[in-house]
């Protein structure tokens, strides 16, 4: 077993995983920002807010 290569591969894999997690966190933040903006628009309108993300869904 070539330990320096194994360690280098592990470090590279961890860096890729960290980058993927950061992309996921950024994506989640974008979804939250979008939902907040939609909620703010709904508050500005006179219509009652919907508890559902899908506007076609009903109680």
Task: Tell me the layout of helices and strands.
Elements lengths: L2 H42 L15
What is the gist of this entry?
With 59 residues, the protein is mainly α. The chain has 1 helix and no strands.
Protein model, in words:
71% of the residues lie in helices and 0% in strands. The chain contains one helix and no strands. The longest helix is centred in the middle third of the chain and has 42 residues, at 3-44. It has 59 residues and is mostly helical.
The CA-CA distance between the termini, in Å, is 61 Å
Rg on CA atoms, Å:
21 Å
Secondary-structure element pattern, one letter each: H
Uncertain residue ranges: none
Mean pLDDT across residues: 84
Number of helices: 1
Helicity range: over 70%
Keywords:
single chain, 59 residues, rod-shaped
